[in-house]
Specification:
With about 190 residues, this protein is of the alpha/beta class. It has one domain (about 1-190): Pyruvate-ferredoxin oxidoreductase, PFOR, domain III (Pyruvate-ferredoxin Oxidoreductase, domain 3), CATH 3.40.920. The protein contains 6 helices and 6 strands; from the N terminus they run E-H-E-E-E-E-H-E-H-H-H-H. It has a 6-stranded mixed β-sheet, covered by helices on one side. Helix 2 (about 105-110) links the parallel strand 5 (about 90-95) and strand 6 (about 120). Helix 1 (about 15-25) packs across helix 5 and helix 4 (about 135-150) packs antiparallel against helix 5. It is globular and about 40 Å long.
Length: about 190
């Protein structure tokens, strides 16, 4: 079973991200579940959502304490919440930021993980460019597909198109594909040394 924990703030689409991820996984024949955990239900409050993807039926319904991947939609949470808590030693971390990792205090985490497993992308900028709104969840899902190889970008786009319609779906799909390509290019750069 592959477990994902998504951190963000209310209004950033954290819950929708987990739902879209589970729909993409389900469309590829996996078992999947997605659910949120709310502290306070106001906009801007910390929110966590979870997604599990498995080849067999999922019986667990508790929060993901030992994730295989962590997606951080809002890096201001790094100093407030232990977003990397319980992360697998071979896990993945995907951050929405344009800041250097050293400035975020993640240099030790980057060294502890396999090369290329801690990645940052400018998801908010990609969302603004393609969608016209500063909601980073969809670009991060495209990046997740490239980073982990767990799902195809086509499945992620199909989940987006099932959730949204018309120009909104097309713009979000473009944002997801742009983030996917960005991570693929970064992985090629890391592999080249």
């Amino acid at each position: 079973m592959f477990q994902v924990r998504i951190h963000g703030r209310g209004g950033q689409g954290v819950v929708t991200a987990a739902e879209l991820l589970s729909v993409a996984a389900f469309s590829e024949g996996h078992h999947a579940q997605a659910f949120p955990s709310f502290g306070s239900e106001r906009t801007g409050a910390p929110v966590v959502s979870f997604c599990r993807i498995s080849e067999v039926a999922i019986r667990s319904h508790d929060p993901v304490a030992e994730p295989d991947a962590v997606i951080v939609q809002d890096v201001t949470l790094l100093g407030q919440i232990d977003v990397l808590g319980g992360l697998s030693p071979t896990g993945y971390v995907l951050l929405n930021t344009e800041q250097p990792l050293a400035e975020l205090g993640l240099a030790a985490a980057e060294r502890a993980l396999p090369p290329g497993h801690l990645v940052s992308i400018p998801a908010t900028a990609l969302a603004l460019e393609h969608v016209g709104r500063a909601v980073s969840n969809v670009p991060l899902l495209g990046a997740f597909a490239a980073l982990t190889g767990l799902l195809s970008i086509d499945s992620v786009v199909a989940a987006i198109e099932a959730r949204f319609s018309g120009p909104v779906a097309a713009k979000n799909a473009a944002a997801a594909r742009a983030a996917f390509e960005l991570v693929v290019q970064e992985a090629a750069h890391v592999a080249a040394g």
